[in-house]
Specification:
With 378 residues, this protein is mainly β. The protein is built from two helices and 28 strands. It is 2% helix and 42% strand. It is globular.
């Protein structure tokens, strides 16, 4: 189940506040399309087609076209994917910014290689039929050995700079026993940034020369570090701001506003609180989240998007995110450096991901019911 997949409860810094919902909810969920099995991601290419692609954890991708679910899968790589019924599987999808010309897209999935769990970042191409991918087109860009079955991250997204950003969890177990979050010689517990259009000697991609740790003993792919399990992140349209929701350990969930070369604390910090040691920790050089909540409100944070649609004027410019464990949806707004979190809706659903269409309207993916719902005005 996805609660295990996200790894909850495994035994710009700035001010933030919380406000209760003010009167009737300003959003609602409207049924859109159902019929999915274990959906984990929602992506829509910038190709003018209006199609939506839904990732299923077992290893398939389905297509919604014209508001209807197509019968055949876009891609089926179940034979390659290590779906363990918990944390592992096909977790993320990103379309190349020039997808309409080159038909290239990228996947984040888990596999077993001679008994070793690995995260795989791979490139594929669509066939001449736009609703069918070519399974033989796989080009593996990067593999990362995983020490434990949990905390895989999973998100892929192209930034406004045209580079591919990758979220990797700390490698698993509980409490980051190997110290991966604070170790810049491993890719685990990081947000990575790579150039998929070029290749450096000996690897299948290029490391951008302006990445923060290029040229030293640390891994040059790293963009930012100190993460536990950055399951879902997104870039804001227009501003390019990078919002990362990092799933917490036993007590706190957090949202980070991620910038180049910054350290977001795990496992020294959990949210804005000391974790290791549990008090009196050294916070020098660490960047605190822009919001957090404790496990009395929810246990598995699901990152969303800043809303730039037109259907719900009341939330324009707000970052919307949710919690898998209870289906709560919040908005996060900023005023003069203070971030305010407001509960918008309690749905009771198992929201595994948000989605954004070409018009900037937002959707949620319900893992348990296998459905996609649209966020609308009530």
């Amino acid at each position: 189940m996805l609660l295990m997949l996200l790894g909850s409860g495994c035994g710009g810094s700035g001010s933030f506040s919380t406000t209760p919902p003010a009167g009737p909810s300003i959003i609602a969920l409207a049924p859109f399309v159902n019929g999915f099995s274990g959906p984990t991601d929602f992506q829509s290419p910038d190709d003018g087609s209006g199609r939506i692609f839904i990732v299923q954890q077992t290893g398939t991708i389905r297509v919604i076209s014209g508001g209807s679910l197509l019968t055949s899968s876009f891609l089926d790589i179940t034979s390659k994917v290590n779906f363990d019924g918990a944390e592992q599987g096909l977790l993320g999808l990103a379309f190349h910014p020039s997808y309409s010309q080159n038909r290239r897209f990228y996947l984040n999935y888990d596999r077993l290689s001679s008994g070793q769990i690995q995260t795989v970042i791979a490139e594929y191409q669509a066939s001449t039929d736009p609703n069918v991918a070519d399974p033989a087109s796989e080009r593996i860009l990067l593999t990362v050995d995983q020490p434990f079955p949990n905390h895989k991250g999973g998100q892929l997204a192209f930034g406004p700079d045209g580079f591919l950003y990758i979220g990797l969890g700390d490698g698993g177990s509980g409490g980051d026993p190997l110290g991966n979050g604070q170790n810049r010689q491993t890719l685990l517990g990081k947000i990575l940034r790579i150039d998929v259009d070029h290749a450096d000697t000996g690897i299948q991609y290029a490391i951008p020369v302006d990445n923060p740790f290029v040229g030293g003993s640390n891994r040059g792919e790293i963009w930012a570090d100190g993460f536990r399990n950055p399951w879902r992140f997104s870039f804001e349209r227009g501003t390019g701001r990078l919002f990362v929701a990092d799933v917490g350990q036993d007590k706190f969930e957090e949202v980070d506003l991620v910038q180049k070369g910054l350290n977001y604390g795990w496992n020294i910090m959990e949210g804005a609180h000391c974790f290791n040691p549990p008090s009196g920790c050294n916070m020098t050089g660490l960047t605190l989240p822009i919001t957090e909540y404790d496990h009395s409100e929810g246990e598995v944070i699901i990152g969303g998007y800043v809303y730039h649609g037109t259907a719900i004027p009341a939330v324009v410019g707000a970052y919307l995110f949710a919690d898998f464990s209870n289906g709560k949806i919040w908005e996060l707004t900023e005023n003069s450096g203070t971030w305010t979190r407001t509960l918008l809706l309690t749905t009771g659903r198992n929201i595994s991901s948000f989605g954004q269409d070409a018009a900037g309207e937002l959707y949620v993916v319900d893992y348990r019911s296998g459905s996609v719902l649209k966020i609308v005005a009530p």
